[in-house]
Amino acid sequence: MSETNPKLRAELEGIPTYKPGKPAAAGGPAAYKLSSNENPYPPLPGVLESVTAAAESFNRYPDMACTGLMNELSDRFGVPLSHLATGTGSVGVAQQLIQATAGPGDEVVYAWRSFEAYPIITQISGATSVRVPLTPGDVHDLDAMAAAITDRTRLVFVCNPNNPTGTVVRREELERFLDRVPADCLVVLDEAYREFIRDPEVPDGVELYRERPNVCVLRTFSKAYGLAGLRVGFAIAHEPVAAALRKTAVPFGVSQLAQEAAIASLRAEDELLGRVGSLVCERTRVSDALRAQGWTVPESQANFVWLRLGERTVDFAAACEQAGVVVRPFAGEGVRVTIGEAEANDIFLKVTEAFH
Ligand code: PMP
Q1: Angle at Cα 46 formed by Cα 45 and Cα 51, nearest 5°?
Q2: How far apart are CA 225 and CA 217, in angstroms?
Q3: What atom of ligand 1 comes closest to residue 223's alpha carbon?
Q4: pLDDT tens, position by position, 55-65
Q5: Which helix (H) or strand (E) segment is 45 a member of?
Q6: How many CB atoms are closer than 10 A to CB 208?
Q7: Which residues line ligand 1 (CB under 6 A)?
Q8: How far is the CA of 192 from the centre of ligand 1 (A)?
């Protein structure tokens, strides 16, 4: 009955809820999940131990300030504590960033297609999304993005590498773009897949942040570090932005288990980055195999590949599932396929061979 319903903000009307990557069917035919860009390796024993130790006191709230992790990050990146903020996954930090910067009447600019959370968190804030189409080669069109910025633009997301295409923007074009962005507009470099980049021309966002007060870098422990289920991400940003992020944080939003696992992962970085190296080799193998089969695939610098399939997208995803791998379809456009275990990648390649 409408008169008993509480008043909800009109902006929330029609916002889609998050669509998680479809899980693999336990014991079923679709055994491998290649739909959420997760890390296929199981947790390192040392990381698991740190989580188990932290679990002994989960009757207590976590350290709200994430002191240990913040100190580790400060040392690791050579940034002051006042320039750091942690959050419930980097999507949580992205949501805080919008909450802190944009509201009704403001605009948020991002490429499209890109990370599916951007339109959702923008709409939740009441701000307006300005989507700038990728080039025909599936790369950010930074000239068009610069041209889309108005005096209402508060935030620009640059997803580098871009989800779901895996494509990157390189130093020269990114610097040229940043030169054109007004000083009062925040540019968020979303580097969720940073550790998978092998192209030397792609700049490290942290270097750009050091030179520019309106640049903020988003990173996550979900991908290269393999902690997707623990929900911890962070931002490196200049003081007013980082301070706003600390204000808008969900209290106790990063569990002690997540904090300890993130610290242990930073300390086990060499081993984890070795695993990333193996996944990058698999990415090359999969991309080469797809091209040898006759597919056109954009050069991915992330832990997934993008296959344009147009109207055949949904059928292709169903064929993958039938064969034993779950992929992520974007109906009418294409599928994003995570680089997983070699066996899983082989199954995917069998489907692409039959489908082409
Ligand atoms: N940014 C991008 C580009 C992503 O693809 C993802 C995860 N799919 C995230 C941010 C969020 O990751 P998390 O919240 O797990 O840190």
Answers
A1: 95
A2: 17
A3: 15
A4: 999 999 999 99
A5: helix 45-55
A6: 18
A7: 37, 89-91, 115, 159, 163, 190, 192, 220, 222, 228, 233
A8: 6
Which ipTM score applies to this complex?
Answer: 0.99
| d(C-alpha 227, C-alpha 231), whole Å | 7
Cis check: omega of the bond before 119, within 30 degrees of 0:
no
Please state the pTM of the whole predicted model: 0.96
- Give me the residue label for tokens 């193998």: 285
Residues 6+ apart with CB under 8 A from 98: 108, 121, 122, 124, 125, 127, 155
Which tokens hold the place of 57?
């006191």
Both tokens of residue 43? 């947790």
Residue 172 CB burial class (10 angstroms; 0-12, 13-18, ≥19) = exposed
Residue with tokens 């379809």: 329
What is the distance between the alpha carbons of residues 291 and 272, in angstroms, rounded to a whole number?
29
CA distances from 139 to 195, 200, 283 (A): 19, 17, 18
